[in-house]
Structure formats: structure tokens, C-alpha cells
Specification:
With about 500 residues, the chain is of the alpha/beta class. The chain contains 15 helices and 21 strands.
Length: about 500
């Protein structure tokens, strides 16, 4: 009799204490990497309440999986630039069509500032997915050195000023410190400066994520630097969008993984993220580490070793928008100039007109991409944004499932989802998300395995992905097949290691 009364209390408690609904007859892939299983999942308010063979209760909304649809944790984009979309509801579809329920901003050394103001604004206005952010080293460097006198090493007093700002931003809830050491002004920072900043992040129990000093010419030294930071500070360190972006170094992923594994064996908490494309997206300047933009030998080296002329595609060029979508090879033909001269001309034109520019460069191989993707400590990210020219902004997560699971079998489906969910949460230090488990937040995606695919290409970069049937954030549905459902159920995720 006592058991019956208790069961009736549980049934009634869903209506007493909050809204409940039931995912019925789903293939559950829980994010841990374990094999899928058939089960029902009950949600109450914003949490996962029960998992098992459950009976629908009177008045309870039931979502039917028919033993075919997949229920997985919401995907966590650990390296995202979708913050550019958050003031335009028409672009929410770029991340929701991928099943993303948490976006992590502030990458590559650039972030909103001050973070506290940004968090307050987003909380007050409402957001459809969860947000977290790093604080950017480059952003802080501009605050201290200004935007004119930054092409030098910082003095000890300037480093102290930067560390003071970093400490305050960590108190606001930043996940940690991010660097973009191939970009201005981070490229001019000394190893001492970066290490000192990382020490401050460590004292606030944060982490360190880095777009390395080099992803090509000095890749090995750049890997050594981030490992050293992890050793000296004891904080978790994440390599952003790990890659080998130099022709004569293709295949180096094997030895890099050996170095990373050796570091982990010594106790260094090094991890990485990756996006599933062989094109990067950055400024034209990034392939001139010496910033010698008028040096033809440097331009020739870049186009021979780093990215070929037909693989360098203009993504933005305010000085001459007609060039957008064209390769350096095509523009060279139009101008009747050799590719190296064209490269230098385009940079000079952008500088002379003070115009924004960016390019996409093809410089990675499938071998290295797959090798890094299989490394047990690599999670998936987009490194993109909707409305841009790179297809990763709308296609990354479905592409991993369609191409790297179903087509070439680089990963199992369980491994892929693990790398999009629970591993991502662990790498970022995010608690109670990324796994289908009782008392975890109800960030969930419904996947149709027959239709999951990316469709965006270089020529059609904003063509939406398919196969993500539903997206739920904190127990509220925000996506259905091909459209946004206006529920602003996302929350700000602050550094749980400290706050």
C-alpha cells in the first residue's frame, strides 16, 4: 500500500511541481560513448527526471520516436563565433539546424568586454540557447596597449595591468583565457606574457584555450608552448581547431598525437577541438607571420606551402566586394598578375582603404583531419557563424555524422555524439549538461538518421543542414525540422570551477 501511495505521489507530482513531457520509444545515445539503447525519457521543467520503460501520464505531452529516431544530448559548440548572430533572429537557424544547444564564445583571443555587461544584456533580452564565454587575451591587450602601439612585447607593468583585468573578468564568470597568437596583437606577445596571463587564469580555476602561434611553419614549437603552459600552471589547456596547415608537414598528426599523449601521461590536461572541413577562415595577413606584406618571397612561400592560389577564396573584401567568392587564381587572371603579386596587391588595397577582409584557405588533408578527430580528447566545434561564407557555420555537426560516421566510418555514431556533448562539456568544465542522465538539464536533440546531413558548400555556404528534427533547451522546444520556435530558454553558463 505504501508503494502504491508513493507511486501515485510521483505521478501527481509532475502536475503539482511543473510541466512534464515524455520522449517515448527512442534510440537513446546518452553522450558517454556507450552503445545506444531503446528507452523513454521523461522531462520535468528544465531537467531530465526519469529514464526507462515509462508509462505516459494523463495530460502528459508525448513525443514519439517509433524505435527509430535518436534522442541525444544537445550539442555543445566549444569554439563558436555565432555571437555575431544573436541580434538577428533570422540567423538562429544556422546553429539550431545543427542541434547546438550551447555556444561557447570569446575564442581566438577576442571576446566581448566587459563580460559582465554582455552577460546581463543577454540575460535581460533572452537567448534561445545557452551561452558561455572565454575572455580574450587580444581584447585585454588592446585595453592596455591601445590599438596603435601594440606591435611589440608588453612591459612588466603592462602585463600586471592585463592580469588585473583578466582577474576581474574571471570573477564575472569567464570559462578561462583564450589566445589568438597568429593574430594582431597577440602575435607580438612574448611567451612570458602569455604564461603570466595563464597563471592568473589558473588562480581563478579557469582554463586556457589557444589558437596557436603557428598552425603551419612553427607548428611543433607552438604545440610545445601550450603543453608548457599546461605543465607550469596545472590548468586544463585546449588547442583550438587543431590542424596541420602546411604542405610539407601533412601527415604530422601522428607524431603530434604522440606528443600530446606523452604530455597527458605526465599529467598535462591537454585537449583539442576540431571542425570537419579542410578550409580555414581568417584574414589574408595570417600567412605572413613576419608581417612583411611587401615581401614577394613570403607571398610565394605562402601560396606554395600553405594555401594554393585556387584554394584561397575571398570571403569578405569591402574594398572591392566583386571579389567575394573568387579565388586568388581567378583574380590573378583578371588582373593579369602572378598570384604572389596579386596577394600583396590585395593586402595593400585593404590597408590603403582601411577595409575589412577575410579569406578561406584550403590547407589540410583528410588524413590529418580524421586522425585528430579520432583522438579520444578531441571534441567537435564549428569555429563559424551563420551568414558567413564558410559552410562550417551551418554544417559542422551534421557533417560529422553524415560524412565521418555514415560515409567513411571514421567514428561510430556513439563516438561522434560523445565528441559533440559529454566530452565537450568535460573539456570546457561545464557541469550537468552534455549527457542524458537524471538531474541533468534537458538540453536535447532529436535526430532522424535517414536525413541527417550538411548541405552547405563554398558556393552555397548558408544552405541549412537537415535531419535535426527537434531541439530542446532547458526543457523548452526551440527548433522543429526547419524553423525556429521562439522560446528564449537559454541561460548564461559561468565558470563552474570558480563560481
Amino acid at each position: 500500500m505504501a508503494k502504491l501511495v508513493f507511486s501515485l505521489f510521483l505521478i501527481n507530482s509532475y502536475s503539482i511541481f511543473g510541466q512534464a513531457f515524455l520522449f517515448k520509444n527512442f534510440r537513446v545515445i546518452d553522450g558517454t560513448g556507450n552503445k545506444e539503447y531503446l528507452a523513454d525519457v521523461r522531462i520535468r521543467d528544465n531537467e531530465i527526471a526519469l529514464i526507462g520503460n515509462l508509462i505516459a501520464q494523463p495530460g502528459e505531452q508525448v513525443i514519439e520516436g517509433s524505435n527509430h529516431l535518436i534522442l541525444a544530448p544537445g550539442f555543445i559548440d566549444t569554439h563558436s563565433h555565432h555571437d555575431r548572430n544573436l541580434n538577428d533572429t533570422s540567423l538562429y537557424k544556422s546553429f539550431l539546424c545543427q542541434g547546438i544547444t550551447t555556444l561557447v564564445f570569446g575564442q581566438d583571443g577576442f571576446s566581448e568586454f566587459p563580460l559582465q555587461n554582455y552577460f546581463i544584456e543577454k540575460s535581460e533580452n533572452g537567448i534561445p540557447v545557452n551561452l558561455a564565454s572565454f575572455i580574450g587575451h587580444n581584447t585585454i591587450r588592446f585595453q592596455v596597449l591601445g590599438n596603435k602601439d601594440f606591435n611589440r612585447e608588453a612591459s612588466d607593468s603592462e602585463i600586471r595591468a592585463m592580469r588585473k583585468i583578466l582577474s576581474k573578468e574571471m570573477n564575472s564568470g569567464a570559462l578561462g583565457l583564450s589566445t589568438g597568437l597568429e593574430y594582431d596583437p597577440g602575435i607580438f606577445s612574448s611567451k612570458k606574457e602569455v604564461l603570466k596571463m595563464a597563471i592568473t587564469a589558473a588562480r581563478k580555476n579557469g582554463m586556457y584555450a589557444s589558437h596557436l602561434r603557428s598552425e603551419d611553419i612553427h607548428l611543433e614549437e607552438a604545440i610545445s608552448e601550450i603543453i608548457r603552459i599546461g605543465e607550469k600552471t596545472k590548468l586544463p589547456v585546449q588547442i583550438s581547431h587543431i590542424k596541420v596547415a602546411m604542405k610539407t608537414k601533412w601527415g604530422l598528426s601522428d607524431s603530434i598525437i604522440q606528443v600530446l599523449n606523452a604530455a597527458r601521461a605526465r599529467g598535462v590536461k591537454v585537449t583539442s577541438d576540431i571542425y570537419p572541413y579542410d578550409y580555414w577562415h581568417a584574414t589574408m595577413e595570417v600567412q605572413f607571420p613576419k608581417r612583411d606584406f611587401d615581401n614577394k618571397a613570403s607571398a610565394e612561400f605562402a601560396l606554395k606551402e600553405l594555401t594554393p592560389p585556387d584554394g584561397m577564396i575571398i570571403a569578405r573584401f569591402d574594398a572591392k566586394p566583386d571579389y567575394i567568392g573568387k579565388s586568388f587564381a581567378e583574380i590573378s587572371k583578371e588582373l593579369n598578375m602572378d598570384p604572389a603579386d596579386t596577394y600583396m596587391f590585395l593586402i595593400k588595397l585593404a590597408h590603403d582603404t582601411k577595409s575589412e577582409e577575410s579569406v578561406m584557405g584550403r590547407s589540410m588533408t583528410e588524413y590529418d583531419i580524421q586522425n585528430f578527430m579520432k583522438w579520444p580528447f578531441t571534441n567537435i566545434c564549428t569555429d563559424g557563424f551563420g551568414g558567413g561564407r564558410h559552410p562550417r557555420g551551418v554544417g559542422s555537426f551534421p557533417r560529422v555524422i553524415h560524412h565521418y560516421v555514415f560515409e567513411n566510418h571514421t567514428l561510430t555514431l556513439e563516438e561522434a555524439i560523445h565528441k559533440m556533448t559529454w566530452l565537450s562539456a568535460q573539456n570546457m568544465g561545464i557541469k550537468n549538461r552534455g549527457k542524458i542522465s537524471q538531474r541533468f538539464f534537458a538540453d536535447l536533440v532529436v535526430i532522424d538518421p535517414d536525413h541527417i546531413s550538411d548541405h552547405a558548400t563554398l558556393s552555397q555556404p548558408n544552405k541549412l543542414s537537415t535531419g535535426i528534427d527537434q531541439v530542446w533547451v532547458n526543457g523548452k522546444q526551440v527548433w522543429s525540422k526547419d524553423h525556429y520556435i521562439p522560446n528564449l530558454s537559454g541561460v548564461i553558463i559561468r565558470n563552474s570551477r570558480y563560481n
